[in-house]
Amino acid sequence: MALEAKRLRAIIGGSAGNLVEWYDWYAYSALSLYFSASFFPKGDPTAQLLNTSAVFAVGFFMRPIGAYVMGRYADRRGRKAGLAVSVALMCAGSLMIAFTPTYATIGLAAPILLLVARLLQGLSVGGEYGASATYLSEMATRRHRGFWSSFQYVTLIGGMLSALAVTLLLQAVFTKAQMDSFGWRIAFVLAAALALGVYVLRRGLAETASFQALSADRPASGMAALWRAHPREFLLVGAITAGGSLAFYAYTTYMQKFLANTVGFSVQTATAIMTAALVVFMLVQPLFGALADRVGRKPMLLLFGVGGAIVSVPVFSALESVRTPGAAFAIVLVPLLLLAAYTSISALVKAELFPAHIRALGVAFPYAIGNAAFGGTAEYVALSLKGWHIESAFYWYVSAMLALTSVCFWLLPETRRTSLILED
After folding, report:
1. Is the distance from CB of 198 to CB of 17 less than 8 angstroms?
2. Whole-angstrom distance, CA of residue 235 vs CA of residue 237
3. Any idea of the CA torsion for 290, 294, 296, 297, to the nearest 10 degrees?
4. What are 110-115's contacts with CB under 8 Å, separation 24+?
5. How far is CA 241 from the centre of its chain?
């Protein structure tokens, strides 16, 4: 009983840090509609959003570096050590965004400092994913590993919802002019304070049995070793991440802008629709994780891949003509529920493919590459296509990528049976 209580506390502690990481990360996207004018010269609002989205994408391209450095660190020094460092970097990035002066005050230095902050946060999130996925997967019991590992996305979505809730609260308290001026900064001050608290919490987490069982003379964790011993797994993780990340950011972060910029809802209404949809998305994660423990990982992944490829174009097309928030909410739920079949177990599947001595790096590095190339560029691609008056091409892009990703899902082993996480 004491062991189970310790395991539960560890999973909750690891998940709490994940929530703060993704609150920080998503706050940037949720509030960019307000602060884009603060960091870039006055001009067309779509151009300012495009510049802000470009900085958002650049942050993604730091993820492979963070994944490599922090993945090796977590394999060598321990999972909880990697978790503590990642949240400290996120805290630093949030403080920079909160206190950087505007373009009108310091000129070109403003977007440069914004970029530096996003680079720090990109390093942080790049390291966080591998350490968090590995930690939660190793701490979960074999029989209920899908259920417990799904809490990575429960807390990830919880972080996004927290950012949206703070956005709604700030919108209720401040006028539009006040939000544009200083209101958005409050969210990043809060992010830094939460990150500091979680840093203290993570320092006290228990280490996983998988890491503790590693011998001192274990093989080294590094890129050469990863590619030499696990090339197929490396490529598959990168490929399934490409489609999964593109869909995730298309259906969540970009969807809010799509509802405001294309469908025509106010920013407040678009935010409220996505908040309600993400609550449902968060709550179904453990259900899909538990289902994967019963039927296997591959059926769930194929449900997402094939289903997403079929519905993406109809969903975005239908939203173009929606006029009521209720109808928009119902339509947005369709791809989100399919996506949950992937997000609930995606980190676990990746962790189950690699042995313990190189697991954190194996999960983090190929994931970060696929995520940077396709997830990080999702908004930029969508906004660019909109600027060229061919926005529907983005819908087909998402659909085609999910069709290709479904092939990769088919090539995966059924990791419920072949898992390399050996502990019960």
Report:
1. yes
2. 6
3. 0
4. 110/38, 110/39, 110/40, 111/39, 111/40, 111/51, 111/55, 114/39, 114/55, 115/55, 115/58
5. 11
Q: List the end-to-end C-alpha distance of the chain, in Å, as a whole number.
A: 15
Q: Mapping DSSP to helix (H, G, I), strand (E, B) and coil, where does residue 40 land?
A: coil
CA angle 273, 171, 122 (to 5 degrees): 75
Residue 215's contacts (CB-CB under 8 Å, 6 or more residues apart) are none
Cβ-contact 71, 223 below 8 angstroms? no
What is the length of the chain?
424
Amino acid at 323: R
Alpha carbon distance 372, 385 (integer Å): 19
Identity of the residue numbered 2: A
Q: Which amino acid is at 44?
A: D
- Supply the DSSP symbol for 322: -
pTM, to two decimals: 0.86
Do the Cβ atoms of 297 and 146 come closer than 8 Å? yes
Q: Which two tokens stand for residue 337?
A: 């529920």
The neighbour count for residue 4, using CB atoms within 10 Å, is 9
Alpha carbon distance 416, 238 (integer Å): 20
- Look at residues 18, 21, 39 and name the one whose alpha carbon lies nearest to residue 185: 39
C-alpha span between 235 and 362 (Å, rounded): 10
What token pair was written down for 162? 């927290």
Q: For 326-382, what is each residue's pLDDT tens digit?
A: 999 999 999 999 999 999 999 999 999 999 999 999 999 999 899 888 987 898 899
Q: If residue 270 lies in a helix (H) or strand (E), which one and from where to where?
A: helix 267-283
pLDDT tens for each residue of 298-323: 999 999 999 999 999 999 999 999 99
pLDDT in tens, 41-77: 666 566 666 666 677 667 767 888 999 999 999 999 8
Give the span between the Cα atoms of 372 and 366, in whole angstroms: 10
Name the residue among 140, 184, 24 with its Cα closest to residue 91: 24
Question: Cβ neighbours of residue 420 under 8 Å, at least 6 residues apart?
Answer: 352, 353, 354, 355, 356, 359
